[in-house]
Write a structure and sequence with these properties.
heterodimer, A: 136 residues, mainly alpha, 3 helices, 3 strands, B: 111 residues, alpha+beta, Glutaredoxin, two-stranded parallel ribbon, two-stranded antiparallel ribbon, 5 helices, globular
């Protein structure tokens, strides 16, 4: 009796630990954004996969509908996270801007509407030119 | 915008290296003016005609709001002579070069 009880208890612990890991990854990403740390959160699908493994072990120990549902949900979440992060990958830069060469000629405008061209890059100061996606 | 917050916060360290930070987007002058007001130590460039973004081949078609174009997150370091000294392309649309990494690249690549 006590062996069955211990096994059920261990299985339940693994189930809840596995379920807890997925939201932990999401909470980690929220915390990361609050800290302005802009890196790819590969730990999110990694934690979801670990959760899948733990729930899988708990299901192996005792087959219940709830454990099957938890496993399906975690597989879905982990798969979605992997696909979403993969879809956000960018190709390597292969454009005309090259190390050791002048920046290509261009025309744009400063915020006050005055022209900004290639000639504006040479001067007293070095320049970090950051292309961002916009105010949205 | 998060990257601009961090760049603005570290502006003194760029100034110490005799460097300015120019931030470019394909938004119009009105939006650039608003962003400039929010980040007074950065230099905002409006590239709504895509003259700069197309010269550098950085247009990300239909990736902006309402299916509009936007820039691929990329950072270049250009020295005082106008020569390119560093090219950084984010591996993902959600990843950016941190100010620490940018300052380190400046220390290594710019004289």
């Amino acid at each position: 009796m006590s062996t069955i009880s211990r096994s059920a208890s261990r299985g339940r612990f693994l189930l809840w630990l596995g379920i807890a890991l997925a939201p932990l990854g999401i909470a980690g990403y929220v915390a990361q954004l609050c800290l302005h740390w802009l890196v790819v959160p590969w730990y999110m699908p990694a934690l979801a996969c670990l959760g899948v493994a733990l729930v899988g072990v708990s299901l192996w120990e005792r087959r219940t509908v709830w454990r099957v549902l938890a496993l399906v949900a975690l597989v879905g979440l982990g798969g979605f996270e992997v696909m979403a992060l993969s879809a956000m990958r960018l190709p390597r830069y292969t454009g005309p801007v090259a190390l050791g060469k002048p920046f290509p000629s261009f025309e744009a405008k400063l915020a006050d509407g005055t022209p900004f061209t290639q000639a504006g890059l040479a001067g007293d100061q070095h320049t970090a030119m950051v292309f961002f996606r916009g105010r949205w | 915008m998060t990257e601009l917050v961090e760049l603005e916060r570290r502006h003194a360290e760029f100034a110490k290296r005799n460097a300015r930070v120019i931030v470019v987007s394909v938004e119009g002058v009105d939006d650039a003016r608003k962003t400039q007001a929010d980040f007074p130590h950065l230099t905002l460039v409006s590239d709504d005609a895509h003259g700069l973004s197309e010269a550098a081949e950085l247009i990300h078609p239909h990736a902006g709001p309402n299916g509009g174009d936007t820039d691929v997150p990329t950072t270049f370091l250009v020295d005082r002579a106008g020569i390119v000294r560093c090219v950084y392309r984010s591996p993902s649309v959600i990843e950016r070069l941190s100010p620490d990494a940018l300052l380190k690249a400046m220390d290594q690549r710019l004289r």
